[in-house]
Amino acid sequence: MSRWTRVLAPFRRFGQVAKRAITSLPWGAGGPSSSQVSTERALSLIPVFACVRIISESVATLPLQLFRRDGASREPLSFTPQLFWAPDSQGDLVTWLSKCLTSMLLRGNAYGLIVQRDDLGFPTMIEWLNPDDVWVDEEVPTRPVFYWRGRIIPRDDLLHVPWVVLPGRVVGLSPVAAFAQTIGAGLVTTDYGLSWFTNGGTPPAVLKNANRTIAPDESEEISDRLSARIRARKPLVIGSDWDFNALSVSPEESQFIESLRLNATQIAAIYGVPPTMVGGDSGGSMTYANVEQEANNLITLTLRPWLVRLENVFTRLMPGREYVRFNVDAMIRTSVLDRYSAHGMALAQGWRNPDEVRALENLSPLPPGQGGDIYGPRTAPALPAGDPAKEE
Prior knowledge:
single chain, alpha+beta, Arylsulfatase, C-terminal domain, three-stranded antiparallel beta sheet, 14 helices
């Protein structure tokens, strides 16, 4: 059986299911549109795209490590589970994780179809479905029924990862739907700015003739010619009997820039991202200490909930005592001096050995017998008896 045959087999199996709940949608339909703001439309707003990009890329590019519990201790495993080696038909873990996070960030839910398992029944390949194609009958929250394009998906073949779930519900809250007014306000403001510059950046104006009365047909023609001249950004030449007055509106009065900044700050608050990273207002002057604290907040307040949620979900897919963790230390970029000082403390306090430190610096282990696997402070080897250096 080819790889694509295995991938498509579950989809064909769902196509043969003929059961349908009375409360569900018509055949071939996806989930209900919960907001007039579509996913693609929301992503066209720069703060929304920036929040989704920052969270999804930051989490997806972290190293994913496998451990095994052994009583109170844990043992890092050197091999990578097949699920994280080739998670879907594309075989790219970063893209696979990004799809999951993007679905959760925009629709509040990620739905993964398990298309391949190992001999013990553990998933080895999961294809993420478009959340708009999935509808959930959650009338009985303890026994929800999942539909993909109008067809029931067996619960054992589906991995559901929600974001914010209300009590008594199964489906996560969709940010695009819940905050449609906030996102829509940003889209309207952006469209207004686009039309402003498309029309030449010139506000409405009054063109008055002091010597004659202009008929309605002539007025319409003059107005069209004047608008075309302004949009073309060409000089406007009028005679002595014409008076042109532009109805100017200052940026301060229109509050255009302030509206964009306020909307970016609100969207950043929805996703827990520092406002200055998406074009919002920090609420004060930025100093080096503020920037450093903002970076720490990004890890602890923004990324940590996503990391823990995914770690718990992926751990349930692992056999026995195995579990997964993201290596957050990979995000910390310090100076060479600070990094080496931290290595020295780790070696002196005995919670890392030289080979582990060398691995962090992409160096090969020490040769056998050189103490690379020994924890604790290193001491100089004793010199043999009769050595001149010892006698001195």
